[in-house]
Amino acid sequence: MSRGYAKHRKELLEAAIKKNPEWPAMTLAKHLRAQYPKEWPTLDAARSSVRYVVGSSGKYRKHAIAPREPRKAGEDWTQYLPKEQRTLHEWGLFDIKGAHRALVLSDVHSPFYDEAALKLAIEYGRERDTTLVLLNGDIMDCYALSRWEKNPEIRDFPGEVRSGRDVLKAVRAAFPNARIIWKWGNHEERYDAHLRLNPDFYGLDDWKWENVFRLPEHGIELVKDKRPIQLGKLSIIHGHEYGRGFTDPVSPARTFFLRAGVNVLGGHYHRTSQHSKRDLRQSVVSAWSTGCLCEDHPHYRPLGDQNQGFAFVEVDPRGAFRVDNLRIIDGRAW
Questions:
Q1: pTM for the whole thing?
Q2: CA angle 42, 46, 49 (to 5 degrees)
């Protein structure tokens, strides 16, 4: 090999390394092999040349022309990772500690709620000395913001907001000393979806859900992002968290059981049901679905099989719990 040829290859090597100093030896070798096939007829030849010049092997290090610091295993590849991006602001269980007597109200769908049913549920909770009220999703209907077909005669979102504010005011007045937590359901999520379509308003504090409904004024906590609530050893979901795999299950409680695999209570389907089964360790795992507190015969399903109802959950200091899953029939809770 002539000195001129060797010098030419050295110049090509140094130019490639200078232009791409962060490239590993193999990447540089592939580049040289592709650009200068006559100088490096094989990939192994190109890689050997690179390793010689940068001193990436012990036997070449003392002859290195453009030496690099020895690379430690796993040290340099992480610099190429892009910054991670999360689709949820917050995730994980919303854990409620301690013993409680919890009234669980789901699917009120204000302003289309049933006044008699809601009053009955609230009075039941007052008689049981409720310490915790869980507004378990779809407390608001957000009818005017729906992507489904809407009746223009009742499309009035400002009126819906006023109705929702009054419902919250009534709940707080009924339970002045109780902790109140509002978990978003799929109907509340309509609001967020609507704001995303109008991004000029999305970042304004006045348009945030908690401010629109004056939650700080009433001391009401908000749970979003489909976060499950953990109440002792019972998990509480609204019921839409798993997507649309089940649109109208035979038993909503069994659906929750199959998807969650733990003791769980949810709403969403407007039907009261319960399902229990022993697991492999012979522990009983149960699931419940609650009825709704909205009108019995909505325009979209006047002959549906929905029923009105709510739940009351007692939790002891160790997390053990009892669920009273009540139907409302003929003006009474059963």
A1: 0.75
A2: 140
HSE-CB at 213 with a 13 A cutoff on CA atoms is 27
pLDDT digits (tens, 9 = 90+) for 98-154: 999 999 999 999 999 999 999 999 999 999 999 999 999 999 999 999 888 788 888
The per-residue b/e assignment along 5-44, b for 16 or more CB within 10 angstroms, e otherwise, is: eeeebeebbeebbeeeeebbbeebbbbbbeebeebbeeee
- The rounded distance, in Å, linking the Cα atoms of 227 and 167 is 23
Element spanning 83, H or E: none
Tokens in use for 179? Answer: 């902790």
Instruction: Find the angle CA(113)-CA(265)-CA(100) to the nearest 5 degrees.
Output: 90
DSSP character string of 197-254:
TSHHHHT-GGGSHHHHTTHHHHTEEEE-TTPPEEETTEEE--S-TT-SS-SS-S-HHH
Helices 157-174/115-127 angle, 10° precision: 20
Residue type, 308: Q
